Amino acid sequence: MPILAVVFILSFIGVVGEVPVASLLLSDVNSYTLAVGMQQYLYPQNYLWGDFAAAAVLSALPITIVFLLAQRWLVGGLTAGGVKG
Known about the structure:
mainly alpha; transport; sugar transport; MetI-like_sf
């Protein structure tokens, strides 16, 4: 069970931050994911750092909540491959 929790957390982080696939598949501005929408704040003409920072905090919230809920299994999963001796 602990190893599955580690795999779930790492997969969840990868899916939440997936920018290349989402930016290729989504053409409508209203259907952008949060990561693709954050990329729209960083153009060479105008960098909206305040908006980008707020979106970064919002994108970190789901990952933080999932981590806090699965925290007790993570330690066991990360150390399951360690060698005892």
